[in-house]
Specification:
Layout (H helix, E strand, L loop, with lengths): L25 H8 L4 E2 L1 E7 L2 E7 L2 E5 L4 E7 L3 H9 L1 E6 L5 H6 L13 E3 L5 E3 L4 E13 L2 E13 L5 E4 L2 E6 L6 H6 L10 E4 L4
Antiparallel strand pairs: 1-11, 2-3, 2-6, 4-5, 5-10, 6-9, 7-8, 9-10, 11-12, 12-13
Bound molecules: flavin mononucleotide (FMN).
The site of flavin mononucleotide (FMN) has 16 residues, from β3, β5 and α2.
């Protein structure tokens, strides 16, 4: 079956003035990396008694011993400034019914926390009620990376609750539907099992 692809062969690779491979434009990168389905989080921090929060999916686990993760925050984000100053943040992994919160925290400005039930964790960061999981982190290291800052967080405390995740794919929020009869490791052991692997993503658009 013919597939529509957008690729660049090595022979076509462009170079900048210094001889390094040049970058593709941001829009192409965003549209392509958007094919990587993810969960959705709200990264929160508290600074000078004010709560900050941002919808984020640039969140990755890094190390088990010690437990570490990373998050990437845009320098323009108000939450980024609060994380840098407070040296702490919390990752709130959203539950599938929290799409409205994901939309609200993807906008900048005051009032995001109006009516949101929360408590403050050991390190001061807001922990949102109804989230699927909370990870409380302190900032171990921060690295400037283009438009963003990468924060390596040491995980101080973690907890999770029953529920299903909010998912994100190609600019839309949705629900993740798993075939509970087929564990992922069985799929790796026997490729023939892959035909029974019926993960399906059902998406809806907000607003
Ligand atoms: C699904 C989704 C994922 C996002 N992921 C990130 C992210 O990982 N890092 C980031 O800085 N912004 C991310 N954003 C954009 C921020 O949510 C947005 O810029 C927000 O307005 C920043 O709020 P603040 O200025 O109050 O911190 C994401 C937005 C959406 C909808």
């Amino acid at each position: 079956m013919a597939r529509h692809t957008h690729s660049e062969s090595p022979g076509e690779r462009r170079e900048d003035a210094s001889g390094s491979p040049s970058h593709i434009d941001g829009e192409k990168f965003r549209d392509t990396i958007g094919h990587f389905a993810s969960g959705v989080t709200i990264i929160t921090a508290q600074h000078d008694g004010t709560n900050f929060g941002v919808t984020a999916n640039a969140v990755t686990s890094v190390s088990l011993e010690p437990a570490m993760l990373l998050v990437c925050l845009n320098r323009k984000s108000r939450t980024q400034g609060a994380v840098s100053r407070s040296r702490a943040f919390a990752v709130n992994i959203l539950e599938e019914r929290q799409g409205d919160l994901a939309v609200r925290f993807a906008m900048t400005g005051p009032g995001k926390f109006d009516g949101v039930e929360l408590r403050h964790g050991d390190l001061g960061s807001p922990l949102l009620q109804g989230a699927l999981a909370h990870l409380e982190c302190w900032v171990m290291e921060e690295v400037a990376a283009g438009t963003h800052v990468v924060y390596l967080g040491g995980v101080h405390r973690a907890e999770y609750f029953p529920g299903e995740p909010l998912a994100y794919f190609r600019g839309r929020f949705g629900q993740l539907e798993l075939d509970r009869d087929v564990p992922a490791d069985a799929d790796i052991l026997d490729p023939a099992l892959s035909q029974h692997f019926h993960d399906a993503l059902t998406f809806f658009t907000h607003g």
